[in-house]
Amino acid sequence: MSETDPKIEAYAHPNRLVTTDWLAEQIEAGHVGGPDGIALLESDEDVLLYSTGHIPGALKVDWHVDLNDPVSRDYVDGAGFAAVLGARGISRDTTVVIYGDKSNWWAAYALWVFSLFGHEDVRLLDGGRAKWIADGRELTRDVPTPTPVDYPVVERDDAPIRAFKDDVLAHLGSPLVDVRSPGEFSGELLHMPDYPQEGAMRGGHIPGAASVPWARAANDDGTFRSRAELEAIYLTEQGLSPDDDVVAYCRIGERSSHTWFVLTHLLGFEKVRNYDGSWTEWGNAVRVPIEK
Amino acid sequence: MSDSSASPVPLPSALAEIADDFTSANNDLKLQLLLEFSDGLPPMPERYAGDLSRLERVDECQSPLFLTVEVGEGASLDARVVNLFFDAPPEAPTTRGFAGILHEGLDGLSAAEVLAVPDDAPMRFGLAAAVSPLRLRGMVAMLSRIKRQVRAKTAV
């Protein structure tokens, strides 16, 4: 059940990414869905996009409704995660493939949250929803009805891949990657271009951060750039090394999940943390240092 | 929910009916209803097509949405009819769904009736749990811009 695409085989963790061709074959062969099959999940910015048509056999997982704690600014706990996965018929050893809109931002975000709970086999669909549609492949409005299973209650382990504000303060001077747009990095914009103002009191970036907008890791069709192209950006140009301790951030942690995925799984960096508080925390926090 | 010691300002009847449909539905059905409003949102008429500069952009929406308001002639605010026009791409069904609700609930009402719609109307559909409160901001922004345009276009 693995990819044999040469571009994907070249990545550090080739088992973390699948092509639309591969997925189409798995669907054709009846390997998607069912108690022993691959679980296919769509994770979008727009909560209704799945309902307008999705890849056959896909179930929806929503970042706001399913993966965020409804009260505290945090992710669901072990019991909440178990409920979300169990209801979708996903067991601890199920292969999960996630795809989504917006160049897979929310899919990468979901994959990162799955990783906080140590779900072993979770992969992204290269190019996401847009690539599947651009390929001219089928979408359906039929929603599968999985048989619920008991997913174990696993305690979330944040430390290895998640950074909090205090971690970032302690990390100042070590590699930080700001993946926002250049206008957000310079402090000219307090939010993404074309996006709602999401309330940061201050503009700029965390001192010492390098500006590497997430989109540089993606091709125009939303697929990831090749390993050689990614190495040229992050290793040669930015001077990062796979054994560096790196923190990535953006505005709320979704675009930096994309970069976290690139550094961790495509380039094999061993210690990359996503600072999900990101600019909506840092730009509002009192007396943290800011560079413009 | 909020403390409602004073009785809330009522919604116009068409919007109230839609709110009833939503509040009596479970979360899955709410999304289904919202999808129907998204699918049913009328296209922007020819006279606006291709000229987004004449439309107001609602920045608070997650995805781009443009809207404009036309107010008919009449002797008073009660006599002047309001028509609403929206443009949002199919990749933004939630935004389209919000627009569809406002279109079905408000289009054709008088200026006086539109201006009397309470600002918290978007909170009366029970949608916060189904789509998240953050996403609902888009609908709040649409309503406030509609009312502002009506106010501006009826100012003497």
Task: Fill in the keyword field for this structure.
heterodimer, A: 292 residues, alpha/beta, five-stranded parallel beta sheet, four-stranded parallel beta sheet, 11% strand, B: 156 residues, mainly alpha, three-stranded antiparallel beta sheet, 6 helices
How would you summarize what this structure contains?
The complex is a heterodimer of chains A (292) and B (156). Chain A has helices at residues 6-9, 20-28, 63-67, 78-87, 105-116, 128-134, 165-171, 182-186, 227-237, 255-266, 278-282; strands spanning 17-18, 39-42, 58-60, 96-99, 122-125, 176-178, 210-211, 245-249, 271-275.
How would you characterize the overall build of this protein?
The complex is a heterodimer of chains A (about 290) and B (about 160). With about 290 residues, chain A is an alpha/beta fold. Chain A is about 30% helix and about 10% strand. Chain A is built from eleven helices and nine strands. Chain A has helices at about 5-10, 20-30, 65, 80-85, 105-115, 130-135, 165-170, 180-185, 225-235, 255-265, 280, and strands at about 15-20, 40, 60, 95-100, 120-125, 175-180, 210, 245-250, 270-275. In chain A, the strands form two sheets. A five-stranded parallel β-sheet of chain A has the order 1-5-4-2-3. In chain A, strands 7-6-8-9 form a four-stranded parallel β-sheet, sandwiched between helices. Chain A starts with 5 loop residues before the first helix and ends in a 10-residue tail after the last helix. The relative contact order of chain A is 0.15. Chain B is mainly alpha-helical. Chain B is globular and about 45 Å long. The mean pLDDT of chain B is about 90. Classes of the chains: A alpha/beta (about 290), B mainly alpha (about 160). The interface of A and B includes residues 45, 51, 65, 70 and 196 of A.
